[in-house]
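Q: My labmate handed me this sequence with no annotations at all. I'd like to see what the chain might look like in three dimensions before we decide whether it's worth expressing. Could you predict it?
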Amino acid sequence: MKTLTTVILSATLMSPVVRAEMVSGKINNAIQSAETDLYNILEKDMTIVNFAKGGSVLSEAEARNIRAVYRSVVADGDIEKIIVAAWSDKEAIKSGEKLPEAQVVLAQKRAEAVKRSLSEMTNKPIESYNMGQDAGWIAKTFRTKDARLKDALKSAAAPDRNTQELASLLELKGGPGTALVIVKRDVKGENSTTGR
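A: Here is what I predict for the chain of 196 residues:
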């Protein structure tokens, strides 16, 4: 009881400036915590699908991973859309270079295989990107600073922390032999039906 009385007395005797600084510090800590949670969610909302060299068939394990990520986001709320970025077996194209047609087709088949698996779970929009055909979509969509993609950014606005984080995850996790699946949450509440 004595401790509680001391705390209450101390709080009432504190100057308004000190109290304001304490409140401001708590608010800043809460904001930083929320931002950290948001960035953690971004990584949890995506999965990497690995394909056998030259293959475009989803293994059962990869299909389970896709379902798990999708269900995890649905359990937390609404989904706006799903993004699938599929790569061929060759390194992503650089500005002005083209991959052989067989590699472009392979990336497309991989994107279609992932889309088929997702369409069995949801009627939400699924955007697919063939990274063998257009690696620059990362820059256009997420405004990255990657040197290979700078041409697409000359007139772009400064990237915010969320888009930089997402673009970094794409750059780090995507690549030859993979497809990246991102389940984008409906943070604005525009899609009122949960999941499907």
